[in-house]
Write a structure and sequence with these properties.
Bound molecules: flavin-adenine dinucleotide
Number of helices: 18
Structural class: alpha+beta
Distance between the termini: 31 Å
Largest sheet: 7 strands, antiparallel
């Protein structure tokens, strides 16, 4: 992973000429606020933990699994939001952990937590490091130091229960490797967020992730049937049956808890069979409103595609649903509908049967079929957009995303509120939106905003973010559909929960983590 950007540097791309012209003429993008610094110029504070404390950590995990090198510390600094990247490009390593610790078992995680609680060392559980909400930038004040607890060594597929369609995995398993291991058993999770290449299964659970095929496979929290968690106060093992009436479901307290209550050390996950057939196609609607109405009918009456995504007029025009062919967009609003499943069989389950059924609904609602070419282009470029962000930052454009969700009846107001907030807070930005996660009762809205960097680009974005968060709260949306809370959404989350809700979180925190070492400053106001 590139320390100051996204992913594999070999996959970095040049911006197409059309986009450069658009950035210059429409948005006034001239040049970056400041060129990116070299790796050697990143400013790091000296390691705050004295040798005796580092030695105590090494006693638990072995010397080779306690890292204090520049590369390790910089590689575990913050996550991958645009402000995170801008800070790294500016050489700001102030949130770097003092050490990176790599435990090799649940027992080692538990022992580390006990040790860190006794020594007042803050602990940041670290999966793929792809958080975009400041979920890895723990507060260090009041602590002897900060360690990143990297789960990379806990990366096994532990067991497969093919009869129940349940697998047990370790949290540090990255998504592509998980799919490779499961494929050998003819199984898949079907979880493909845009951060797929780097994010881990533990991170998906800790941040309640949602993938591009959520219409067919569900959100990640739908897949979690059981969890093992190490906390400073002891272990929790949750989920002994598919459903239970034995009181409140404590799994839900841990899902989305972003490492503040404990470290997830094992997950039991529902899996599906690898689909025999996959087909993705495009449809055009006259407007975002018409397209959204069609998605609502599919979500409420079926048949539901596996992938369902609607771009608004601006996103369709730019061609963002097809990052490989960006700039070659079209008019109207593009829908990508994908069908995965058995090649033959009853129309309610087979890929082609559902395609025919959903196609009839889309046509009845005013959609015009565009064939499989847009669907294939989407599939081909589905993980490419984050690389585009690096190219945009390099030429002086800030690009960032904002996401929320609401009930169908509230969606038009939410859409307008977010757009207006962004347009008001930034100087002539490009604001694009898509719907890519639908439910019977509502949907998510995912906005991408591009603007010329003016002054300090981090401050510029933070002002816009404040305005847009207030607009989301006022318009009745949730502050996050799938990115989570982290540091960035903490205040808005508190507004969503109310004071009693916040007190419940604090009470749980003080029971499980009385010394407050786990991810201080994250999630809980
Ligand atoms: C380019 C890009 C695209 C993205 N696209 C999507 C998308 O399509 N859908 C989506 O849902 N999200 C997306 N994200 C956000 C991010 O990938 C998700 O939040 C993901 O779930 C994080 O996984 P991770 O393994 O990287 O976790 P990390 O970023 O390492 O950690 C996330 C949070 O969980 C905590 N944590 C991690 N592992 C554990 C554990 N084992 N136990 C307890 N706490 C833990 C961390 O302390 C942190 O607070 C995207 C991010 C980027 C940068």
């Amino acid at each position: 992973m590139l320390w100051s950007g996204w992913g594999d540097p070999a996959k970095a791309r040049e911006l197409p000429q059309q986009i450069r012209a658009l950035l210059h003429d429409l948005l006034g993008v001239r040049e970056p606020a400041a060129p990116a610094v070299s790796f050697e110029s990143v400013r790091l504070a000296p390691v705050a933990l004295p040798p005796a404390r580092l030695a105590a950590l090494a006693e638990v995990v072995g010397h080779e699994h306690v890292l204090t090198s520049r590369a390790a510390r910089i590689g575990h600094t913050r996550g991958k939001s645009t402000p995170d990247l801008l800070r790294m490009r500016a050489g700001d390593g102030s949130d770097a952990p003092d050490a990176v610790v790599l435990p090799g078992s649940h027992d080692e995680v538990a022992a580390l937590l006990r040790l860190c609680a006794a020594e007042r060392i803050a602990v940041v559980p670290f999966g793929g490091g792809t958080s975009v909400v400041g979920g890895l930038a723990a507060a260090r004040s009041g602590f002897a130091g900060v360690v990143a607890l990297d789960l990379a060594r806990l990366d096994r597929l532990v067991s497969v229960d093919a009869e129940s369609m349940v697998v047990t995995v370790e949290p540090g398993l990255r998504a592509p490797e998980a799919e490779r291991l499961l494929e050998r058993h003819g199984l898949t999770l079907g979880h493909f967020p845009q951060s797929f290449e780097y994010a881990t299964l533990g991170g998906f659970a800790a941040a309640r992730s949602s993938g591009q095929a959520s219409a067919g496979y569900g959100r990640f929290d739908d897949m979690v049937v059981g969890l093992t968690v190490a906390t400073p106060s002891g272990d929790l093992s949750l989920g002994r049956a598919p459903k239970s009436a034995a009181g409140p479901d404590l799994r839900q307290l841990l899902l989305g808890s972003e490492g503040v209550f404990g470290v997830i050390t094992a997950l039991r996950l529902r899996v599906r069979r690898v689909p025999e057939r996959r087909v993705y196609e495009g449809w055009r609607f006259g407007s975002f409103q018409e397209g959204a109405a069609a998605l609502r009918v599919l979500a409420q009456e079926g048949p539901l595609p596996t992938v369902l995504r609607l771009s608004d007029e601006t996103e369709t025009m730019i061609g963002l649903a097809r990052p490989d062919a960006i700039g070659g967009g079209d008019s109207g609003c593009l829908v990508i509908a994908g069908y995965e499943g058995p090649a033959a069989g009853p129309p309610e389950t087979s890929a082609e049967g559902r395609r025919a059924g959903a196609g009839a609904v889309l046509a009845r609602m005013g959609g015009v079929p565009l064939g499989t070419e847009p669907g294939q282009a989407w599939e081909h470029g589905r993980f490419a957009a984050p690389y585009l962000r690096d190219s945009l930052l390099a030429v002086g454009a800030t690009v960032e995303t904002v996401e929320t969700a609401g009930f169908w009846s509230a969606l038009p107001r939410l859409y307008d509120a977010v757009r207006l907030a962004l347009l008001g807070a930034l100087e002539s930005p490009l604001v694009m939106c898509h719907v890519s996660h639908v439910y019977e009762t509502g949907a998510s809205l995912y906005f991408t905003v591009v603007t010329a960097q003016k002054g300090d680009p981090v401050e510029q974005w933070e002002r816009a973010k404040e305005a847009v968060s207030a607009a989301i709260v006022a318009a009745g949306g949730t502050i996050s559909h799938h990115h989570g809370v982290g540091r960035d959404h903490r205040e808005a989350y508190a507004a969503e929960l109310g004071p009693v809700g916040v007190d419940i979180l604090r009470a749980v925190k003080s029971r499980l983590d009385p010394a407050g070492i786990l991810n201080p400053g994250i999630l809980i106001p």
